[in-house]
Specification:
The complex is a heterodimer of chains A (516) and B (336). Chain A is of the alpha/beta class. Helix content of chain A is 31%, strand content 24%. In chain A, the strands form 5 sheets. A 6-stranded mixed β-sheet of chain A has the order 6-9-10-3-11-12, with helices on both faces. A 6-stranded mixed β-sheet of chain A has the order 18-19-20-15-21-22, sandwiched between helices. In chain A, strands 2-1-4-5 form a 4-stranded antiparallel β-sheet, covered by helices on one side. In chain A, helix 6 links the parallel strand 9 and strand 10. In chain A, helix 4 packs across helix 5. Chain A starts with 21 loop residues before the first strand and ends in an 11-residue tail after the last helix. Chain B is built from 14 helices and 2 strands. In chain B, strand 1 and strand 2 form a beta hairpin. The N terminus and C terminus of chain B are likely disordered. Classes of the chains: A alpha/beta (516), B mainly alpha (336). Chains A and B meet through helix 10, helix 11, helix 13 and helix 15 of A and helix 9 and helix 10 of B.
């Protein structure tokens, strides 16, 4: 006869002293048939800061949304203080004592701090909102956090990002949370603000809250957390005590996958054509002094985590969110574009990451989209002739049933992207910037786009590729620049490893030296 | 995946593609014209029919102008007031310069219409006031100014040579108004095939995409308002010739124009629809009014009918739209 059933498997060892406050077991979740979480487990002890790390798309945010009742898991259990919960709505999670601080704040700007803190559960007196009680209670909560410099009567719109975040935390505390989830809380903060937040997080943990801390910045993870859990591709990789590991081990756990896809061979002759675009000291609100050379015939890859300034750099080069300082030379001519139009005239093109919102006029035909740039900015070579248009669409290997008259909204993601590329090729650019060139594109179209991009470089275009997909970046780039916190953290040669990239990308973000 | 090259589309498909979102309005127009023939067999005698086109001409011209604004994603509610103001200003100008050539007065009106359109456009784009509010305000401003200026009953008359355009015929049989209408229609069609027209629609479809493709979206929109103002001035010349001076000359025309454009299947919010269909919408509306008139329905009900049409056209358009989208989405596309 078989033995007695084994006791329920705990996903990982928790530090012995206390029973876990929160336990999540075997959580799975699929969207549209794509499994984004595979049997993920996690536990949290009261008074602990537990860091959750992983690459973009590793499943951290999804897991936290399951915990917060925003997504209903396909399977798996959540236990809080030994009681099993099955949340189907954020309110239930909130009532059970789970608070979540999202990257985007959910505050009403035109209401006061107190009104935001008590939104939806205002204290009443004789059926009227008791403003005084509300403000008093908010004041107490703020005072418990130490010197915050926030008055309950201030309107949220008058507060800085850091202070808004504090309001979010107070809002969570007001509903007696015991588990506080913080999703990349320091991403929008300046260094000194981040340090204040770290202090606050430690104090909250000391008060007995369990804190789940999601961050890309490994340095702060090592400063703050007691344990670290690594997720990758929707799976639980490891949970370790922070004291027993180091940055390299965590980075290895975060990446380390095979470079399996096929990428077109690089140009054999060494690169280093003429400099098509040169930038010195490029700065604006998001970028801190960038030096960059893009050479004809070369593909430059830009790596970096979300919020590192990759997209800001592309948009600044293209004049969509211009540099406020710096010198830029395009094709030997000095020009710092202040608008996309100026950039286009200088021969710069940008394939944005938001294809549907910024790349295409969805209800227009393939033809109208492909010719949009040449029509908007005349005085360039034009592809209006039917022949030239056909060549162009052939060139990008567009497959559209309705031919050039087909509305682009009915094309697949890959073919839509090809139309966007055709739109820029029609204007015969010299510098092509790609922000996530193959996001949401199927495998076949992906390979076609990769080949096309490599061919364009061979023909003498200077190409810049931003991608969150490291294999794509490594496979395509002749050299890789890594961004972190608005500046270039380093340059790596072709064929650099994912570990090298991640090490630079997660590098020191919070320097504690200057104002300790 | 849906990325297959299918055989060339069947002929009927090519036809529907060419007619686009205007199919319902062309069908409606045919039905109305047949109904008119049945109700009144003499309707298709040449002079009767031309008289019908002549009556429709101001609305058709207004619809063409309104189309440009709507397809770029905006509204122009000021055109009716521009028509009224144009008629009254013309009469006042003749009061001061009785010997002025009709062409000079007409050009003055067109210039005035362009200036009002320019103001609408600049306020909407540069100051970011929603065009609904801008042009509503402009309508009230012009109506008030006309009322103040004329004391409610405009004086002066329009001389015969000025009124000829709205009233008389070339070669004794072809009304000038019909020729003006044809010219405006041809110009609008030509314009929509030019770079300006294509970038205008793209702007209405996605302003961000257009701006990031180098389109000067403000300038394009301002130009649409200017052209709408010019169209309104042309309509004023025809209306003044046709029905003479009145402080009510253009009352309600803005809503008739919008109704016509919507009836033509042009999507409110911009980015979709053809100018020919919009003008067909104007003819349909005029045909409907004529039909109701012949059937003995009170003219007082015209605005009621118009209200029903506008709601029905937008409602049906929206319903159709979401169904088409859902169908095509379920058939392909990768989640991003």
């Amino acid at each position: 006869m078989p033995a007695t059933p084994a006791p329920p498997e705990s996903p990982q060892e928790s530090p012995g002293e206390a029973a876990p406050l929160l336990t999540m077991r075997n959580v799975s979740k699929s969207f549209l048939g794509v499994r984004v979480l595979h049997d993920v487990g996690l536990d949290l002890v009261a008074g602990e800061v537990h860091a959750l790390v992983g690459e973009n798309g590793a499943g951290k945010s999804t897991l936290m949304k399951v915990l917060a009742g925003e997504h209903v898991p396909d399977s798996g259990t959540i236990e809080l203080d030994g009681t099993a919960h099955a949340f189907t709505h954020p309110k239930q999670a909130q009532a059970a004592g789970i608070g979540i601080i999202h990257q985007e704040f959910a505050l009403l700007e035109h209401r006061t701090v107190a009104e935001n803190v008590f939104l939806g559960r205002e204290p009443t007196r004789y059926g009227m909102v008791d403003r005084r009680a509300m403000e008093r209670r908010t004041g107490q909560l703020l005072a418990e956090l130490g010197e915050t410099g926030i008055s309950p009567r201030t309107y949220v719109r008058e507060l800085s990002v850091a202070r808004r975040q504090t309001v979010e935390i107070v809002k969570a505390l007001a509903s007696d949370v015991r588990v506080l989830v913080m999703d990349e809380p320091t991403a929008p903060l300046a260094d000194h603000e981040a340090r204040l937040l770290h202090d606050l997080v430690r104090r909250l943990a000391d008060r007995g809250l369990g804190i789940l801390y999601i961050s890309h910045r490994l340095r702060e993870v090592f400063e703050l957390s007691g344990r670290i859990t690594v997720l990758k591709d929707g799976r639980h990789i490891t949970t370790v005590a922070t004291a027993a590991t180091d940055t390299d081990a965590i980075v290895r756990a975060m990446v380390g996958r095979d470079l399996s896809a096929y990428y077109p061979p690089r140009a054999t002759a060494d690169q280093g054509g003429e400099i098509a675009l040169a930038l010195r000291g490029g700065r604006n609100r998001r970028l801190k002094g960038i030096d960059l050379d893009l050479r004809a015939g070369e593909i430059t890859g830009i790596a970096g985590l979300q919020g590192s300034g990759r997209t800001s750099l592309a948009r600044a080069l293209f004049g969509a969110a211009p540099f406020s300082e710096g010198e830029m030379t395009v094709g030997g001519r000095k020009l710092r574009p202040r608008s996309p139009r100026e950039a286009i005239r200088a021969g710069i093109a940008l394939v944005t990451e938001d294809r549907k919102g910024e790349g295409l006029a969805l209800r227009q035909s393939v033809r109208d989209n492909a010719l949009l740039v040449t029509r908007a900015v005349p005085g360039q070579q034009r592809a209006t002739a039917a022949r030239a248009l056909a060549d162009l669409l052939e060139r990008v290997r567009l497959q559209a049933r309705g031919g050039p008259d087909q509305q682009v909204q009915f094309l697949s993601g890959g073919n839509q992207q090809k139309v966007v590329i055709a739109k820029w090729l029609a204007a015969a650019p010299k510098v092509l910037l790609f922000d996530e060139p193959t996001r949401g594109v199927d495998v076949g179209a992906k390979a076609a786009i990769h080949t096309l991009v490599r061919d364009l470089a061979k023909e003498g275009l200077a190409v810049l590729i931003i991608s969150s997909e490291l294999p794509e970046l490594i496979g395509m780039s002749d050299r890789i620049l890594v961004m972190s916190d608005g500046h270039l953290a380093g340059e790596l040669p072709a064929g650099a490893s994912e570990e090298d990239i991640m090490r630079l990308a997660t590098g020191p973000a919070v320097e504690g030296s200057d104002a300790a | 995946m849906t990325t297959t090259t299918a055989p060339t589309p069947a002929p009927y498909k090519r036809l529907t593609a060419a007619l686009g979102t205007g199919i319902p309005v062309y069908a409606l127009l045919v039905v109305l014209l047949v109904a008119l023939a049945v109700t009144d067999p003499s309707f298709y005698e040449l002079d009767r029919f031309l008289a019908f086109v002549k009556r429709a001409a101001p609305l058709v011209i207004l619809a063409a102008g309104q189309y440009l604004v709507i397809v770029s994603g905006e509204f122009d509610l000021s055109v009716g007031a521009i028509v009224t103001a144009g008629v009254v200003v013309a009469a006042e100008l003749y009061g001061s310069f009785a010997d002025a050539h009709w062409l000079v007065i007409s050009l003055a009106l067109v210039l005035g219409g362009a200036i009002v359109g320019l103001a609408n456009g600049l306020i909407t784009t540069a100051l970011r006031v929603p065009s609904f509010i801008t042009t509503l305000g402009m309508m009230l401003i012009l109506e008030g100014a006309v009322f103040y200026w004329t004391g409610g009953s405009p004086k002066g008359v329009l001389p015969e040579d000025f009124r000829a355009l709205g009233r008389n015929s070339a070669f004794g049989w072809l009304p000038w108004a019909v020729l003006v209408c044809l010219a405006v229609g041809a110009f609008a069609v030509w314009l929509m095939r030019r770079d300006f027209g294509r970038t205008l629609i793209a702007t209405g479809d996605s302003e961000r995409t257009a701006a990031l493709s180098g389109v000067r979206v403000h300038r394009v929109r301002v130009l649409a308002f200017v052209l709408s103002g010019v169209a309104a001035a042309l309509a004023a010349i025809l209306v003044g010739g046709f029905s003479g001076v009145s402080a009510q000359a253009g009352r309600g025309l803005e809503f008739e124009a919008i109704t016509a454009v919507v009836l033509g299947g042009v999507v409110l919010g911009g980015g979709r629809g053809s100018v020919i269909a919009a003008m067909a919408g104007a003819f349909s509306l005029q045909a409907l009014f004529t039909l109701l008139n012949l059937q003995g329905v009170s003219g007082a009900l015209e605005s009621t009918v118009q209200g029903v049409i506008v709601i029905a056209a937008v409602g049906l358009g929206a319903a159709n739209w979401s169904r088409i989208r859902r169908r095509s989405h379920s058939s392909g596309g990768t989640p991003s």
